[in-house]
Amino acid sequence: MTATGLWSIGRFLGSLLMSFVLILVIWWLFLLAFPDIGPIIGRTPVDVFEYMFTAPDAAESRAEILDNLWITLTDAAIGFVVGMTAAILTAALFVLSRPAAQTFMPIAMLLRSVPLVAMTPLITLIVGRGVAVVAVMGGIVVFFPALVMIMTGLANAPRQINDVITVYGGSSATALRMAAIPAAVPSLFSAAKVSVPGAIVGATVAEWLGTNKGLGATLQQALPAAAYDELWASVLVITVASIVVYAVVGVAETVVLARMGMQQN
């Protein structure tokens, strides 16, 4: 890794750290701006820190939240893999077959406009509870934005390379494999960065409404039980996990693009 690459990684991680600090500041200002929420319901970042690290039962609280976080991250990984795989395969099909893209792309965008929460009861009824509903709901959240970005990347392959492949008798599939996919690597990483937080959101919604496990279920159960410390701590942990996973993908993007000799946007 060159000094330029290390500087890019440091700048990227620094921007994420500043974003996290900004989130904490906005959180605090929100509670100050709406004092009617009160200290009973509203929890500051300091309150959450005390709940997880300095309170007498902090170890038990922290262990429970981290156990649920692991479940949520596992569910998010399932949804991410399903959604990204489906997006890559569908984007490749649409690039190879323009009629297929013209026929099914509007349908995909129409389905995207339906709120996920509204579809959850139907999805649960069809696939049941458990891993299946996690895969479907997480995959839906990841699929649509990733599909658009990956299709754009595949379509932006250098025309000259495609022409050379065609002249030498290469098929459309050969051009896709040798030209379009390598050119689309930056778009693939961009889609992954956008999709990672979405996969965590999809997993949380699936747990809230479908599986009754993980941090999504914790959020559902904490509110009626007035467990506000646990509620705010779970929200903060989900936020931190999203930022960390996003950072991992961003660092991987920088390293891979540097090795491929591509300039990162």
Written account of the structure:
There is one protein chain. It contains 12 helices and no strands. The protein has 265 residues and is mainly α. The chain has a single domain, classed as MetI-like (MetI-like fold, Orthogonal Bundle), CATH 1.10.3720. Helix 3 (45-54) packs across helix 12 (228-259) and helix 4 (58-96) packs across helix 7 (131-155).
CATH superfamily: MetI-like
- Give the SSE string: HHHHHHHHHHHH
User: What oligomeric assembly is this protein in?
Assistant: single chain
**If helices are DSSP runs of H or I spanning 4 or more residues, what is the number of helices?**
12
Q: Could you say which structural class the secondary elements and strand pairing correspond to? A: mainly alpha
- Number of separate domains: 1
Could you please say which CATH topology applies here?
Answer: MetI-like fold
CATH architecture: Orthogonal Bundle
Count of DSSP E strands?
0
Low-confidence stretches: none
Q: Quick one: biggest sheet?
A: none
Using the coordinates above, name the CATH class.
Mainly Alpha
Mean pLDDT: 82
Note the overall shape: globular
Ends apart, CA distance between termini: 18 Å
Provide the helix percentage: over 70%
Radius of gyration, in Å, reads 22 Å
β-strand amount: under 5%
Family: Belongs to the binding-protein-dependent transport system permease family.
Keywords: Cell membrane, Membrane, Transmembrane, Transmembrane helix, Transport
Subcellular location: Cell membrane
Organism: Gordonia mangrovi
